[in-house]
Amino acid sequence: MFRKLTIATMLAFMVGGAASAQDLNFFRIGTGGTAGTYYPIGGLLANAISNPPGSRSCEEGGSCGVPGLIASAVSSNGSVANVNAIAGGTLESGFAQSDVANWAHSGTGIWEGKPPVEKLRAIANLYPESIHLVARADAGITSVADLKGKKVSLDEPGSGTLVDARIILEGYGLSESDVQAEFLKPNQAADRMRDGQMDAFFFVGGFPAGAIAELASQMPITLVPIEGEGAAAIREKYPFFAEDRVPAGTYEGVASDVSTLAVGAQWITSADQPEDLIYGITKALWNENTRKLLDSGHAKGKVIRPETALSGVGIPLHPGAERFYREAGLLK
């Protein structure tokens, strides 16, 4: 459940400004590493849904968020870690890849043999997450098969990227033991690549990714395509993957479109969260004020649209979110 602080406690944390005599509600959004896409998107959404006591209402030209709510984006290890934190009650919500959310709720895939997270609920599908396979331009890596024997970061435990990196390797006839695997966040892997100590790394997230853009501005890189028979076999076995393309010019030195795969980034929560709270958060997510923040705040913000809010959602909607989508005519 979300935490509450009375007005007396709240004043110890607020400087200046008048606050109304109401409870202050905190709502955390688990994201990912600070160099990825989850974290900045989480910050935009936290800003959009927040409306702390004492602030102006939407009608007064102020916040169009949930009255009394302060939301925050929390850096984490990513999808798997966010699901576990929501299940354990240490996060009120978080972002997760569609595949990870589905597996966790059903107790299948990477969750096989573990208790399913039956209370996992969806707020919205946000945007497609592209699988990036970044390589040093001089590493001789032009396909996934070329990773054999190379130093490759698969991302850290608890991340959805690690899950998908293993699937990609499998689709091309490789396993973790076929590469010199390391398990680093993308910014750490990029640092190793600058030092000549890393040949390639995986990252799953919306483009442009900050860590990759910064790396590409400092040294020549290759964005390795994930296509052909290997990609087709992966899509057949794991239907939550979709064909995707990273446009030319997204990263410096990448002059052509690059074919890859993508999964959906979804905002999830627990069935234990109050219906009225999640209704208010969903309503705040899709108002005009939030639209402006998303359009101006991040390249991936522009593709977070209400018409795709339910695309690829394979777990139950939270009742509060469901109520909003029915009222908005997006759900029959």
Automatic annotation (TrEMBL):
Signal peptide boundaries: 1-21
Record has Phosphoprotein as a keyword: no
Transmembrane region(s): none
Matches recorded under InterPro entries: TRAP_TAXI (IPR011852)
Sorted UniProt keywords: Signal
Xref: Pfam families: NMT1_3
Keyword Translocase in record: no
Domain of life (superkingdom): Bacteria
Protein name according to UniProt: TAXI family TRAP transporter solute-binding subunit
Protein species of origin: Peteryoungia desertarenae
